[in-house]
Amino acid sequence: MPDKKALRIALVGRPNTGKSSLFNRLTGMNQKVGNYPGVTMERTTGLSKWAPGVLAEVIDLPGVYSLHASSSDEEVVMNALFQTAPEEKIDRVIGLADGTNLKTCLFVFSQVLDLGLPAVLAVTMVDEMERRGMELKVEELSTTLGCPVVLVNARTGEGLDALRTAVLEAEPSRQIPFFQPGGVHLRWLAQVQEEQHLAIPYRAWLWGLNHVESSAGIEQESGKPPQRARTDEAIQRYRQVNQWLRQFFVADPVKDRRWTARMDRVVVHPIWGSIVLFGLLFILFQALFYGSEAPMNFIDDQIAALSGWMQGHLPGGFFTHLLTNGVLPGIAGVLMFIPQIALLFAFISLLEESGYMARVVFIMDRFMRPFGLSGKSVVPMVSGTACAIPAILSTRNMENSRERWLSIAVTPLITCSARLPVYALLIGLVIPDVSFLGLSVRGVVLLGLYALGFIAALSGSALLNRFTPAQKSPAFLLEMPPYRLPQLRNVATAVWNRTKSFVSEAGKIILAISVVLWFFASFGPEKTPDFTQEHEPIAIEASYIGHLGKAIEPVMEPLGFDWKVSVAVLSSFVAREVFVGTMATLYSVDDEDSATIRAQMARQVDPKTGQPYFTLAVGVSLLLFYAFAMQCMSTFAVVARETKSYTFATVQFIALGLLAYGAAWMAYVALA
Q: Which domains does the chain possess?
């Protein structure tokens, strides 16, 4: 490989085949997250040394059910495998096959082999195969496929050395193509090959089926539409796969206890399954407060102590004031919420690793139908608890355009992780730290806010569903993966990557805005910055930010928001979590004792009443405003792009803003 820096190796397989576990084993923590070229879809790559002088770049492609590009995931995989540019070309493929579900996995892998790519089949879940009394004749299957077949256990690392060796030595299969079109299909394929100058028949076949507009004339001459061609291919491939399994696969029905089926009798039951789901969610939100309160306070206290130390030991000039009153409050607004963010991501990863997330989709399908949605809509809603942007992007896989439109319209109402710092700060400020029947009242309130987001999303969908023309929904089909004990390595890697992404991406925005806000809060029309003199603080009301806040205060005053809170709300349209950093900066500009964010906010006094400003009425008003408002310009941009309509995004933004304003106003009036 003299012309390439690394051997590019792609992992290809169906979902729930252990792809993430194998990827983590092959790459360790040397991973990075990016976007596929030309597609806003996350991908993970990792570099590792496999042999002397050989550096391997492992690419984790999305899990797919076939190489036919009927969804964005499948399109990404097909485009990756078709790349011919030296810097993007795939050199080797590792096909993933769940040993307990070989039939569907071999379907995808046979497609990969027909593309003429050097490939190795990695059979995972070998421990479950042994427990179920399953046996695979590896040598015989390898001979038939014309490529190496390796049994691996990503949990223990068994078989990884053999897999690396097989990948480095892999060559294209010399067996005849496993799919052989005939008759009119063959004539159509010959024309596509000639027209596109593709030497490998199956590459021409996929190209023709996935570029319908280019091959429309050929379709018409052959008399066979692409859909029928796909069906004929699936029938032929599954016949071939069934023959392989009869020859090379043995299962002992006595040892195959099918614990998955037994568990599903309870977990997907209409009543008991719902109880289990809501019980798990309840435990999560209790844990978010009980488990994170101590580390959050520790981080906040340490940053406040650092700020106090710097004020006492550094010269009292411009840059010291910038560090202690601009930079450190911004850092505190990011770091102190890492424990809660990490706990949330860990819980979601555990559900995904265990196979339970698919059951959540199935359980919720029956509840979603009356609202014009299906179980597939649960995927963006559950994803929305992390971030609305990937949640909206995940709607690309919905076949029903109307359901996709409804999902995009209501997904921003789901409480995302960016709202969590705001909720945590406000709940800790205005909700008493008491228990009822052994349960944290703060945890119950947090659970209620998440539930409110789901209820609002479903209610909004039901309302829109009444005023949009009905469309026939396709049958809801879902493959249930077996239950598995979550692999802590995978959970830890997922939590690390997602938390790191939150700190690096959100942190940059929060810190930058904190510094900008510090500048506008430290200087005003009557005081310009002088870097050569000691910093002399001015009344924040006389600053630039004070003038802006006073200008917008009349609009926000009916909600109980003063000018400082109004500025924080306005700045958080860049990103919701910016609210915390903004409040920290505004309250620390003229603060001399370096108190924590909560302490600074708790001692604020309403000048009209002389009482603490952050009362239950103000706190609940703010919580409801953030629960409903679409406070993220990135989400606005993604909605506009996915719907191809800025009108849709603008109407959605205004509607959710009015809803938030109305809910906050009613709450403030009722509680004030």
A: 7-169 (3.40.50.300), 183-251 (no CATH), 501-671 (no CATH)
